[in-house]
Structures are given as C-alpha cells and as structure tokens.
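Hi team,

As requested, here is the filled-out complex form for the acetyl coenzyme *A run. I kept the field names the same as last time so the parser does not choke. Let me know if anything looks off before we queue the next batch.

— J.
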Amino acid sequence: MSAAVGIALTGSGAATPDRVVTNDELSLWLDTSDDWIRSRTGIAARRIATAEDSLESLASQAAKQALEQAGWRPDQVDLILLATSSPEDLFGSAPAVQAALEANNAVAFDITAACSGFLFALITAAQYIRSGAYQRVLVVGADLLSRWVDWQDRRTCVLFGDGAGAVAMEAAPEGWDGLPTMVMGTDGRRRNCLTMAHRATTQVLHNQLQAGSGGFHPIAMDGQEVYKFAVQQVPLVLNQALKQAGITAEQLDWLLLHQANERILASVAQRLGIPAAKVLSNLGNYGNTSAATIPLMLHEAVEAQRIRPGHLIASSGFGAGLSWGAALLRWGRPDAP
Ligand code: ACO
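And here is what came back:
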C-alpha cells in the first residue's frame, strides 16, 4: 500500500446554484409525480442553474474552499483538473478556474468522462503526485446538465441537477497513502446507452464546399441498461479495489458512490455487505450532478464531521462511456489530530 511519495487528501469544497426545483414543480409541465420520482430514484429536489449562473464560477467557488481548507496559497497550486461534460468553453473551462483562483503557477485542463469524471481526475492527479512531478493538485468536478437535458423528456430530465465540488490533494510523507488503490474501465461498445452526441448540420460555404456545424443533441439514455450496468459493474470494481488493498468491506468507514439513484446505492451496498448507515447519500437534495456528485457529498460529510481524518472510504463513479472507476480514499493528512 505504501508508495515512494505519499498522498494526502486535505481539503474539500462545494457550490451549487441557489434555485431549488422540487419534484412537484417538475409536474407543473411534465407528466410525472413526486411519488414516481422519489420511489424510482430517491430524488426529491435538485438545484438548477439560471442563465446568470456559471459552471466556471461554481467550480471556482468549490476549488477555493478546498484550497483554503488545505491551507495552501493560490501560487502553490501545481495542477487544476476540472472534470466536466458541460464546460462553458469547449477548449476547456479549467483555465477560467485557474484565473479566478489566481493560481498562476498551475497548469489547468479539463477531463471529460461524464459521471466517472471526478474519480478519473482524482486518479490522474494521484499519478502526477506519485511520480514526483507535482506537489499540490486541485481536483474539481462540476456539471450543469440542466442546460443539456430535454426538459420535455420525463425519462431523463427528472434525474439530473447542477453543482460543483472539489478536493485538494497533496504530496505526503512516504507511507501515508490517501489513494491506496484504483480501478478504471471503459466499454465503448455500449457508448450509445448514454449520450450527449454531436448534432450534424451542414453549412454551405460555396457551391463546391460544405462544412459541418457545431451543436449537440440533448442527453439520451437507455435508463434500464444503465441501471443494470451499474448494479453489476460497480460491486465488481469495488471488490477489485478492496482486494488490491487487502482490505475487507467491514474495515471501511464509508461507501461514497456516484449519486445516480438510491436503488443503485442500496443494491451495491447490499452486494458488498455494507450497512446502510455507512452509505453516504445526498441525492435526495441534489439529484445526479454528474462529475460533481462525489466531491459534493464528500464535502458535506467532511463539514458535518461524519468523514474524519483517517477514515477509509470506498468510492466509485460510473456512467456514460460506458465507464467506471473505483478507488479507496483515506481522508486527511498524517499530522491531523
Ligand atoms: N414520471 C412518471 N413516469 C415515468 C417517468 C417519470 N419521470 N419516467 C418514465 N416513466 C414511465 C415510463 O414511461 C414507463 O411507463 P410505461 O410502462 O407506460 O412505458 C414507466 O414509467 C416505467 O419506466 P422504466 O424506464 O421501466 O422505469 P425504471 O424503473 O427503469 O426507472 C430510471 C427509470 C429511474 C431512469 C432507472 O432506469 C434508472 O435510474 N436508471 C439509471 C439511470 C442513471 O443513473 N443514469 C445516469 C448514469 S450517470 C451518467 O453518466 C450521466
């Protein structure tokens, strides 16, 4: 479990838009009900970004909180990884986060892997620290999928919400490993189960030349396939991660899954033999915020002192790709009380 350079997770942050939209409010224009949404998903409400809200600003607020909790100065940040599938600039929104933080010595770039994005970014950050390349990394997960759902499609739009979360990860003395094991995977053959695909349209430049135009379809999902994939794949990868670390499920303090559906959380916990009291869940209040769910939940649990320094957390992200990732996380730094 030990590595040449240790890793510590030393700060967290989160930010969400102010506007709360309840299930009852959705039923004002959709053929749906609070009862259907709650019983199938566990979701009661979600935050929805208005046109004035900004992904870059929410991501920056979350990152700033994580940085402050870690006790770093902005000029000490080496790398900012922003996991998002809904950037405000297709060239990348991470540079806007860097600028907002005045983290002028950092390199900043986006990672796109839908609901696996935060975990993939966390694992990527760990590689930079382990190799000795960087000392301090901010890993941010942010998505405003409300901009990309079809608000007339009741099978998808009720599931998603908007938000941002962040974690500060830094080099630690050898032997302290805040991310002892990791597993990642993709099955591109099943990529059509969940898409936000390019919309092909043509622009005629002159009578001999046509070019395509940019644009995207709204989110399209085969909900049942994604559900089956999640309840089968997530226990497998979590078991792999536990086995790699030589840890049993009983030794875990918390299970922190991508917050997609309460039934998925319950099914995975049951398959791993983890009691419901150890399953972290806030999707009732936020819905599926894609790359933001894991750091948003983590931050809430850290703030509430449910997650404490030294706690061992099993985490898994899964979604479009289809893709999945799992990691064990040890919260805090070695010198923490
Ligand atoms: N309100 C009322 N009725 C609805 C709604 C709604 N919002 N949505 C669907 N229904 C209806 C359907 O039309 C269907 O009616 P019918 O039988 O008359 O055709 C009925 O409810 C049952 O629909 P199902 O699709 O079978 O419902 P299911 O129990 O499978 O639940 C759900 C659907 C909640 C989407 C489930 O499949 C699920 O959670 N899947 C996983 C989705 C997920 O987590 N995706 C995100 C992955 S993460 C990422 O990367 C973005």
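Two things worth flagging: The chain is about 30% helix and 25% strand. The mean pLDDT is 96.

Thanks,
J.
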